[in-house]
Amino acid sequence: MGLRRLAAGLLATVLLLTGCTGVRAADCDSVGGIVECAPGQRSAAPTIAGELLGGGAYDVAEQRGNVVVVNFWGSWCAPCRAEADDLENTYQATRDSGVTFLGINVQDSRDKAIAFEEGRVSYPSIFDPGSRLALDMDIPPNTIPATVVLDRQGRIATVIRAAVRQEGLQPIVERIAAEASASAGQR
Predict the structure, then answer these.
(1) Are 128 and 110 in contact (CB under 8 A)?
(2) Distance, CA of 141 to CA of 134 (rounded, Å)
(3) Which of 65, 91, 72, 90 is nearest to 20 (CA)?
(4) HSE-up of 133 (CA within 13 Å, CB side)?
(5) How buried is 80 (Cβ within 10 angstroms: 0-12 exposed, 13-18 middle, 19+ buried)?
(6) Which CA distances in Å does 165 have to 81, 96, 105, 150?
(7) What is the tens place of the pLDDT at every residue in 71-119?
(8) Right CATH number for 2-185 from 3.40.30.10, 1.10.10.10, 3.10.50.40, 3.40.50.10680?
(9) How many CB atoms lie within 10 A of CB 17?
């Protein structure tokens, strides 16, 4: 039984180190809960699609060509409440450069989630009470809030497993948007 526990512990460590990018940790820079991958080391994001809080459907694949900032949140989450203004301000500051934002509400009731969003954010949120989308990205529900930045090709560029502030998030988003624009101009 001890060998089985050791193997499970090693597997958990490997999964933790690879994070949601599906690449080896050595391929990406990781500092203070932020994992950033160079363009050549990025992997495609899993399918991110579902029903919006306000009704209708959303599929992030339709945003290909844009940088997409995906934030996992819950109305019950104090750090999520604290970061909401920073996310909205970053969205407003970067949206004219081909950047879009998407919230993914987890482990919540629809009524509480809608009440939380009202007047706080202007970008859409998928309602995912079972945390299926978070789990697909290897983001355990106990690490909410989490923010994932997808490049214009739909690849995972950055994962932040903590609450964000505008002064930390906006430069990351702007850098990824500029990098993608520079790459498109070189073709």
Answers:
(1) no
(2) 7
(3) 72
(4) 28
(5) buried
(6) 12, 20, 19, 18
(7) 999 999 999 999 999 999 999 999 999 999 999 999 999 999 999 999 9
(8) 3.40.30.10
(9) 13
73 SS3 class: strand
**Residue 108 has which token pair?**
């919540």
Residue 125 host element (H or E) = strand 125-128
As given in the structure block, the two tokens for residue 96 are 């004219």
Radius of gyration of the chain (CA): 17
For residue 182, pLDDT over 60 is answered with no
On average, the pLDDT of the chain sits at 84
Give residue limits of the domains in the chain: 2-185
Distance CA 138, CA 106 (A): 14
- Alpha-carbon gap, residue 104 to 70, rounded angstroms: 7
